[in-house]
C-alpha cells in the first residue's frame, strides 16, 4: 500500500478535549432537569457529550418523560445556556486540559494545520477566556453547522477550510457522537477518555499529554 506524504491536519473538539467544560454542561443540565422534577445518570450524561444544545434538551426531556412545545423548549435551552455561560465566563487558562497547550504549540511550530470542530455555540467565548484562539487556522462550531454530531458535517467543513484531505485528517474527540462523526467523515480519530465509552476510535488516551506528533502521524499507516 502506498502512503501519502501530505502533512496531517488536526481537528480538535473543544469541550472535554481542550478545555474542562464538560462538567459545566453537566451541572447546568442537571440543574434544569432537577427544576423540572427529575434527574439523570452519569451514563445518560455521557450520551449528551458532543450533542448540540437543542438535541441535548430533547434527550433530557425524553428521559424525564416530559413534553414541551417548541417555544417552551427555546426558553428552557436559553435558561440552561444562561447558567452555563455564567460558569464559563469565569474560566481561565488553568482550565485548559493536560497536554493541550503543549500539543497545540508543537503542532503549530511544525506548521501542521489546526481546526476546531465543535458543536458549541459558545466556542469563541471559551477560546478567548482560555487564550487558545490564536492556535486555530479554522474554526467550525455550532454556529456554522446545521446538523449535530454524529453527522460528519462539522469535520468535513473543518477539513475543507484547512484544505486537507480526509485521509490526512485526525480528529480528537471525547464524545461517542464525535467519534461516530469522525468515522462517518472517513477520518482518523483519537478518543479522549475511557475506551469502553469510545468504540471505533483508533486509539484512546486519557488526555493529550499521552500522544506525540509522531504517534499522530503514524495513525495513517494503521
Ligand atoms: C458540545 C458539548 O461540545 O457542545 C455538548 O459536548 C453541548 O455537551 C454542545 O451540548 C453544545 O454546546 P453549547 O455551548 O452550544 O450549548
Ligand atoms: Mg467534547
Report what the structure shows.
- With 222 residues, the protein is α/β, with parallel strands linked by helices.
- It folds into two domains: 9-20 and 93-221, HAD superfamily/HAD-like (Rossmann fold, 3-Layer(aba) Sandwich), CATH 3.40.50; 22-88, Putative phosphatase, domain 2 (DNA polymerase, domain 1, Orthogonal Bundle).
- The chain has nine helices and six strands.
- Strands 3-2-1-4-5-6 form a six-stranded parallel β-sheet, sandwiched between helices.
- Strand 4 (169-173), helix 8 (176-184) and strand 5 form a beta-alpha-beta unit.
- Helix 1 crosses helix 4 (70-88) and helix 3 (53-63) packs across helix 4 (70-88).
- The mean pLDDT is 96.
- It binds 6-O-phosphono-beta-D-glucopyranose and magnesium ion.
- Residues 14-15, 25, 48-53, 56, 81, 118-122, 142, 175 line the site of 6-O-phosphono-beta-D-glucopyranose.
What characterizes the major β-sheet?
6 strands, parallel
Number of strands: 6
Whole-number tally of structural domains: 2
Principal-axes geometry comes out as globular
Report the end-to-end length measured between terminal Cα atoms.
11 Å
Q: Give me the CATH fold name of the largest domain.
A: Rossmann fold
Query: Are any ligands bound, and if so which?
Result: 6-O-phosphono-beta-D-glucopyranose, magnesium ion
Secondary-structure element string: EHHHHHEHEHEHEEH
Average pLDDT confidence is 96
Residue ranges: pLDDT <50 for 5 or more in a row? none
- Please state the CA-atom Rg, rounded to the nearest Å: 17 Å
Contiguous helical run count:
9
Amino acid at each position: 500500500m502506498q502512503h501519502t506524504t501530505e502533512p496531517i491536519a488536526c481537528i480538535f473538539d473543544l469541550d472535554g478535549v481542550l478545555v474542562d467544560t464538560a462538567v459545566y454542561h453537566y451541572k447546568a443540565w442537571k440543574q434544569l432537569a432537577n427544576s423540572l422534577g427529575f434527574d439523570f445518570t452519569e451514563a445518560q450524561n455521557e450520551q449528551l457529550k458532543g450533542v448540540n444544545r437543542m438535541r441535548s434538551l430533547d434527550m433530557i426531556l425524553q428521559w424525564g418523560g416530559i413534553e414541551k412545545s417548541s417555544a417552551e423548549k427555546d426558553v428552557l435551552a436559553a435558561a440552561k445556556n444562561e447558567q452555563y455561560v455564567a460558569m464559563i465566563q469565569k474560566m481561565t487558562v488553568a482550565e485548559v486540559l493536560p497536554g493541550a497547550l503543549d500539543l497545540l504549540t508543537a503542532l503549530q511550530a511544525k506548521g501542521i494545520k489546526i481546526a476546531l470542530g465543535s458543536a458549541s455555540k459558545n466556542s469563541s467565548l471559551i477560546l478567548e477566556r482560555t487564550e487558545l484562539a490564536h492556535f486555530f487556522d479554522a474554526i467550525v462550531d455550532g454556529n456554522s453547522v446545521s446538523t449535530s454530531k454524529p453527522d460528519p458535517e462539522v469535520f468535513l467543513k473543518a477539513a475543507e477550510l484547512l484544505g486537507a484531505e480526509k485521509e490526512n485528517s485526525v480528529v480528537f474527540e471525547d464524545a461517542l457522537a464525535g467519534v461516530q462523526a469522525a468515522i462517518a467523515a472517513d477520518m482518523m480519530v483519537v478518543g479522549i477518555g475511557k475506551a469502553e465509552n469510545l468504540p471505533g476510535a483508533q486509539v484512546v488516551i486519557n488526555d493529550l499529554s499521552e500522544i506525540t506528533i509522531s504517534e499522530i502521524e503514524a495513525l495513517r499507516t494503521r
